[in-house]
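hi support,

uploading two proteins for the ticket. first:
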Amino acid sequence: MGEILLNYERPQPATWVYLSSFLTIGLYFVFHRFWSIRNLDLVLLILLAPGLLVVYEGRQLEQEERANRSQQIALQSGTQTKSLVEKFLTLVQPLPMYALSPRGSVQSESVANSLTVLQKTPSFVSEEVSGTTTELVEANSGIPPEAIEGGPAELDSPVDEDFTSDELQRIGFLYLLTIQAFILVRMMLDPIMSRRPLLDPNLTAGGLMFLGVSLFVFMMANVVRSDPQTQYTQGPELGPGYALMRMLPSIPTLPINNQLEGLPADIRPEPTAGEKQLAVVAKVLAILAHLGIVSAIILISNRHFGNTRAGVGCATLYLILPYTAQMTGRVDHALPAAFLLWAILTYRRPLIAGMFVGLAGGLVYYPLFLLPLWISFYWKRGVRKFILGTACMLALLMLALWFDDSSTLADHLQHMYGVLSPLRDAETLQGLWALGWNPFWRLPVIVAYVILSAFFAIWPAQKNLGTILSGSAALMIAAQFWHGESGGLYIAWFLPLLLLTIFRPNLQDRIATKVVAGPNLVRGSKTELETV
C-alpha cells in the first residue's frame, strides 16, 4: 500500500505545459473583457512554454547522442574488465533488438548507461574480455561482429530524426527570443498605459493561497529529492558572474535521461565531500530564493498596491508557469530575481534597496545595467543613499573573493564585472550564439542594450514605482538577447517583475519625492509616508 500511495513520478514537461496553460486560462483569463491587455499578457506568458519544450527536447537529444557515441566506443574498444562485464550482463539481459534504438524503451537507457560507465572505468587489455563483449551484443541483439566493427553508423544512428539536437535548440532559442521581443515591446509601452481597471483572478484569495502553497511544497520537494550527482545536469554556464554562482551545481527537477541512475551503488562514482556540500548549498539557496520571490510578490502587492488578493494571484501564477517547474533548481536564475524583488519592496528606503540591487548585480552582473534607471528614480531624493548601498554590497562581495583561492582575484573580478571579450569563440558560448550565429553580431546587440540602459535614465522624465517595475523587467528581458550563456532561458530575471507589472494598479503618485524621507521631513511624518 505504501508503494502505491508514495509511487510519485515527476510529470513530463509537456504534461506540465498543458495543465499549467489550462489553469492559467481558468484562473486569470478575463472572460467578460475578451479584448483586454490582461488577456494579451496571459497569451504571451503561455507562448513561452513551447520554446522551453523545444530547447528541453534538443538538450535531451544531445545527451542521447553523447550516450550513443559512448556506447559505440565501448563496444569497439574491447578493453573492459571481466568483473564489469559480468555486472553488465546482469543489467541488460534480455536485450531485444529495439533496445539499441536511441529513442527505445527503458532498457535502451540501461544499455547506454552501462556502457558509458564501462568506457569511463580504468581497464586492462584482454582478448578474452573483448571477445566476451562482442559475443554479448551478438547473442542478445542479433548484430554480427562485423556490423560492430563497421563503424558507428550501422549500430546506433538515429532513425527518422527530423532535426538534430543543434537544430532543435536553435529553433527553441529563436522562438523564445521572438516571444520575449513582443514582451519587451509590451514593457516599453507600459508607462503610457494610465487606465488600469481592477481585474482580480477568478478564484478567491483563500483558494489561490491553498493552490499556491501546494505548488510551492510540491516544487521544493522536487528540489530536496533531486540528486545532481546521479543525473545529467546542465549546470550554470561559465559566463559573467560571481565565483560562488559558477561553482554551484544545477539541481534537476524534471525527468531527464540520466547516465547513472538505476545502476548498482558500487558502480556509481562516489561524489566527493565538497560536491555533496555544494549540492546541499545549492538546494538551500534555491528553496530560499523561491520563498523570497513568492513572499516579496505578496508583500509588494499588500504594501504598495493595496491588494493582497492580486499579490496571492500573482505569486500563484509564478508557481503555475512551466518555466518555474523546469528551472526550480537553478540558483543563478532565482536568487538574483529574489534580490530585485526585495529591492522593489524596500524602494522607500534607498539605502536598503541599493544593497539588494548591488547583491543582484554582483552575483550575475547583468542587473548592474539597472543602475541608470534606479539612480534616475532617486535623483531628486535618495540618490546618495542608493549609490552607497549598492557600492557597499559590491565591495563586500569583492572582499569575500579575496579568501577564495580557486583562482586569482583579478580573474574573479574579471568575471564578476563581465570584462570578457564579446567576440569569444562559439565554443565558450552557450545557447543561440553557440549554434551557428557569428559572435560578431553580439557587438551591435550589446551597443543597443547599453543605449537602452542609458535611455531609461532620461525616459520617462518623471519616474514612479510602475516605471521601476516595467523598466527593470524590460532591461532584464533585453539582456537575454546578448546573454552569451543560454540567453533566453533566464526568464526568472524578469518574470516576477513582469507579473507585478501586469497586476499592478495606477502608481503615478509613487515618486521618490513623496515616498522617500528627505532631510527636511520630520520623523512625525512617517504616517504620511505609509499612506502614500
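and the second one:
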Amino acid sequence: MCGICGWIEWNGRADEGPVRRMANALAHRGPDGEGFWRDLTGSVVLGHRRLAVLDLSARADQPMVEPSGAALVYNGEVFGYRELRALLETEGRTFRSSGDTEVVLQALTLWGPDALERLDGQFALAFWDPVLRRLLLARDRLGIKPLFWAEVDRGVAFASELPALLEHPGVRRDLRMEALRSWLELGYGAGEQTLVRGVRRLPPGHMLIVDETGVRLSRWYDPLAAIERRGDGPSTRDEAIDQLGFLLKDAVRRRLVSDVPLGCFLSGGVDSGAVVGAAVAEGARPETLTVRFSGGEDESAAACKVAGAFELDHFIADCVPSDLTGALDGWGRATGDPLADPSFLPTSMVSAEARRRWTVALSGDGGDELLSGYPRLRAMPRLQQVLAVPRPLRRIPGVMLPNRRWASKLRAALAAPGPWSAYQSLQGVWPAAEAARLLGRNNIDLPWDEALLGRLEGLDPWTRWRALDLLTFLPERMLAKVDRASMQHGLEARVPLLDHRIVEFLLSVNPRWTRDKGLLRDVATGLGVPPRSRRKIGFEVPLADWLRGPLRERVHGLITGGTASELGLRRGVLERHWQVHQMGAADHGERLLAVAILVRWVEDVLG
C-alpha cells in the first residue's frame, strides 16, 4: 500500500511544488520512499509515497513510466498478479520488475480501462495515457482503498487522503455546511460529496476519465449484479459450505504473497478465526494479534484459544481511556475525511502494535455486512412488520438487545416514519429527527441517494439491508476506518472476506443461508477453528463509561465550545444529551463523541 497524488493542468503549468506538498502529507502511508514525475508538456505531475511490500528494489519505484510515456501511480495490491503477468507475456510484454505495479501498468497500457476488470485486488490508481492525452483515475470494486479528487483551474487534483488534497493551492478549505446534515446522521461522509466544498470521493467500482473536454465518471463494477444470478449457485447448504470454504482458502492464499513480514488480526470471532484457519490450511504460520479494553468486554481469551488451537504465536495490545483522550486531538487529521467510529482508536492501536512486527496484516473485516453479523441486519426484517403498526402501538420486537446503546437506537427506529428512516436510526449516529433538532431545523432528508434506495427497494428484506451496508456503510465507514488506522502506521491491511468472488457468491446464494454466520462458522469449524463458548460482543470501546469518567471534561469542552456554535449546532440540544448520558438514563456516547470529533476535525484540518 502507498499514497498517491497528482495534478493535471491543461495549460501546461502543472509543477512539482504542490504535488510534493501533497505527497509530504501522505508520508505515513509510504515511509519507504517517494517519487515524482512530470510529463514533457507540463500538463501532468504524479506523486507517490511508497510502502514496499512486493519487489523491494528500486525497479518497483513509482511513478512507474514506460518508454512510450505512459505513467502510473498506484496504491494497493493486485492478488494473482503473477497469472496476469504470464498472460501479458503471451501478448509480447516484457518486465523489468517482479512485483504487481508493472503488471498493472502494462495491463492498462495494453487494454486501457478494460484492464480494470482483470485486476483482482484492492487499489486506487492514476494512469496517464500519452497517446489519448487523458488521465484515468480508478478505485477497486468495493472501495477498500480511498481516492479523493477536485476540479481546479483548467484541470484536476487528486490524492489518497483529503488533508493531502487540501495542500493543493487550487483546493479551498471551505466547509460544505449542507453536508453536515448527512454527516451527523451517519458519522461519516456519504456518497461522492465530502464536507469540503468541491472535494469529492471517487465511489467504489468507479473510474474517472479526465481529458481536455472535461471529466467523465462511470461505474466499471456493480456488486448487485450478482443478485440477479440467484438460482445458478449451489442447490444445498452443504454445497454452499464447500464452495465458500474453497473461495476463502483461495482468497487467503492469494493474500499471503509478500516480500515482507505478514501476520493476522485475531479478535476471537468467526470472521478473523476463519481467515487464520484458512491461512494455516494454506501452509502459513502467521503471528496473531488482538486488542483488549480497560473496563470493557475482553475478547482476548477467545482469540488466544483460536491461536492456541493452531499453535501460533499470539500477542495482545491493551487499550485504556488515556489512549482515547490523547487520540481526540489528532483524530480529525488521522481519519482525514472525518469519521466518528469509536473503534478507530483500537484499530489504530492494534495497527501500531502490528507494525512493530509486520508490514502486512490480514483482517476479518466484511463478514458482518455479508452475513448479517450486525444486530440491525437481523432486526430489520422483523422491525419492518412493526413499522406497519400505528406509532403508539409499536413495541420492541423479539430481538437481542446486546447493550444500552443498541436499545437507544432501537427506540429511535420505532419512532421513525418508515423503514429507511428506521434503518438510518440503527446504522447511523444521530437519528434524523434528533439531527434536525441539533441543526435547528424541522426535518432533514435521508443521507442516501434516492436512486440507490430505488435500486434496493425491490429486494427481499434479508438482502436489502445487507446490500445497503455493502454499498455505503462498508466502504464509507468500516473500510475507511481500517485504511486510515492501518496506513497511519505504514501497515498494509488485506481483507480476504471481501474478495469479490466471495462477495458475489454470498449475494447470489439462497438468502436464508445469509441470515446469520452459520455458513462461515461451518467453514471455520472445518478448518479447525474451535467454537466460541459465548456470543461475540463486538469490537467496541466502553465509550459510555469513559464519557462519564476520564473523557468527561475533554468531550464536554469540545461540544460546548465556540466551534460547535459556529457550525450551527444547538447548545441546548447537546447539553440535554450530555445530562441524560451523565445520569445514565440513556447511552448517547456515540452521538456526543461524533460532535467532538467533528469539532476537532474542523479546527485541525480546516482551521
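thanks. also noticed: Residues 461-487 form the longest helix (27 residues).
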